[in-house]
Design a protein that fits this description.
Helix content of chain B: 25-40%
Structural class of chain B: alpha+beta
Largest interface: A-B, 41 and 48 residues
Shape of chain B: globular
Strand content of chain B: 15-25%
Oligomer: heterodimer
Number of helices of chain B: 6
Number of strands of chain A: 10
Radius of gyration of chain A: 14 Å
Largest sheet of chain A: 4 strands, antiparallel
Largest sheet of chain B: 4 strands, antiparallel
Order of helices and strands of chain B: HHHHEEEEHHEEEE
Distance between the termini of chain A: 29 Å
Shape of chain A: globular
């Protein structure tokens, strides 16, 4: 499955569909078929509306939180 | 479902009338007192919401039904979080730090919809997001919100540290267990 990973431009972990604000790191980011984005520290994750977080020297995974939509009665990844 | 916000500091010297979010509106809903201007990009984001002619739909109901969390956040910024929570008939079920698990009556068919009210510690903005109907505590709600891959990792007080920046969680790929709460949250 590893060789199915896609490199994500700009080191983006997630971005807002309207604001285009993005959570991004300064190292290469890859996305697997499961939607999980993987990268390797040390690096810093930044975003226009959040303080940066320093990440240590290890292999890391990232994904977006989910929310429950009571109209559809389904959980889904947060859209912003 | 709603992700909402009010900014509860700063302000009077800022040009509020130039801001479509915080300007007095013809529907009589006033801007939050001491509210602050959102970043310019956020104004751009919500402009179409507040220029809609469907003023009657504006407000609490719209905040609950808007699917986009950024737009929802701005609707609740306009309405005011406290007003939104009160108008929606919210009941606080649990509190932990800057988190509150609330139950909201959306309709007769949906009398107990659970949301997590939380603070963005970086910019002091409140959010409200839907969590599962089985969540009874803030901790359960926080666990519910994790992405699937992180939620599948056992939780332990001695587990690996993980981080959360806004709606993105970051954790060690090889973690066998993770701590209940993020070590870093911004």
């Amino acid at each position: 499955m590893r060789n199915k990973r896609t490199k994500i431009k700009g080191g983006i972990l997630a971005d807002g569909e309207l604001t285009r604000h993005a959570h991004r790191v300064t190292v290469d980011v890859f996305e697997g078929l499961n939607g999980i984005r993987e990268f390797e520290g040390p690096t810093t994750v930044t975003h226009e509306e959040h303080k940066p977080i320093e990440l240590t020297n290890q292999k890391l995974a990232s994904a977006q939180v989910r929310e429950f939509d009571y109209l559809t009665q389904m959980a889904r990844p947060v859209r912003d | 479902m709603p992700k909402a916000s009010t900014k509860q500091s700063q302000a009077s010297s800022q040009p509020q009338l130039q801001n479509p979010v915080l300007s007095p509106s013809p529907d009589g809903i006033e801007a939050p007192k001491n509210g602050a201007l959102p970043p310019k990009t956020e104004v751009k984001t919500v402009k179409h919401v507040f220029t809609t002619e469907e003023r009657s739909k504006f407000g609490d109901e719209l905040a609950l039904t808007e699917p986009n969390t950024e737009i929802r956040r701005e609707i609740v910024r306009k309405v005011g979080l406290e007003r939104f929570v009160q108008a929606a008939g919210a009941r606080v079920m649990d509190k932990l730090g800057n988190y509150e698990l609330i139950s909201v009556r959306l309709s007769e068919e949906a009398p107990d919809c659970r949301y997590l009210k939380m603070l963005n510690p970086s910019i002091g903005v409140w959010h409200v997001e839907g969590v599962g109907p089985d969540c009874r505590t803030v901790r359960e709600a926080l666990h519910f919100r994790k992405p699937d891959a992180l939620r599948s990792i056992p939780v332990s007080d001695n587990g690996d540290d993980w981080s959360q920046q806004g709606d993105v969680c970051i954790w060690p790929i090889n973690a066998k267990s993770v701590k209940p709460m993020p070590a870093k949250l911004t």
